Amino acid sequence: MGTVSLPDTWVYALRLPHDPRAARVARMTVRAVLNGHDRHEVLDTVELLTSELVGNAYRHTTGPTSLRLTALADGRLRVGVWDSHPRIPAPFGQPPWTTKPGMMR
Questions:
Q1: Distance between alpha carbon 10 and the CA centroid of its chain, in Å?
Q2: Distance between CA atoms of residues 54 and 58, nearest Å
Q3: 69 and 77 in contact (C-beta within 8 Å)?
Q4: Residue 100 and residue 73: Cα distance in Å, rounded?
Q5: What average pLDDT is seen over the chain?
Q6: Mean pLDDT, to the nearest integer, of 68-94?
Q7: Is the CA virtual torsion 3, 78, 18, 36 positive or negative?
Q8: Confidence class for position 91, pLDDT limits 50, 70, 90
Q9: Are 81 and 28 contacting, i.e. CB atoms less than 8 angstroms apart?
Q10: Position 103 confidence tier, pLDDT thresholds 50, 70, 90
Q11: How far apart are the first and last CA of the chain?
Q12: Which of 70, 83, 77, 61 is nearest to 15 (CA)?
């Protein structure tokens, strides 16, 4: 009988307070997690992406932020950052928090 090996998938989640040091904590956490899973090839890119997303969440909201790293079965890595702001950010090229005519504000 053959053995079945599961793909190298994992999920790591971190909740960060609304604090100017949150981006640094997120970078250090990403570095530790990726080093622990031997994902050195994506470390710099993921660290920069995480820092930007968490920094933006701190700058544009007043509540906590959540970070989630997910290693997918096909080798990709998903980085998700959630904040407490109730609105979706404006698309590129539009002023923030504007609404189109006929939309509720």
A1: 15
A2: 6
A3: yes
A4: 40
A5: 86
A6: 87
A7: positive
A8: confident
A9: no
A10: very low
A11: 62
A12: 83
Mean per-residue pLDDT for 89-102?
63
Written as six digits, the tokens of 73 are 């079965």
Q: Are 81 and 53 within 8 A, CB to CB?
A: yes
What is the 3 state secondary structure string of the chain? CCCCCCCCCEEEEEEECCCCCHHHHHHHHHHHHHHHCCCHHHHHHHHHHHHHHHHHHHHHCCCCEEEEEEECCCCCEEEEEEECCCCCCCCCCCCCCCCCCCCCC
Structure tokens at 69: 């790293």
- pLDDT confidence of residue 102: 47
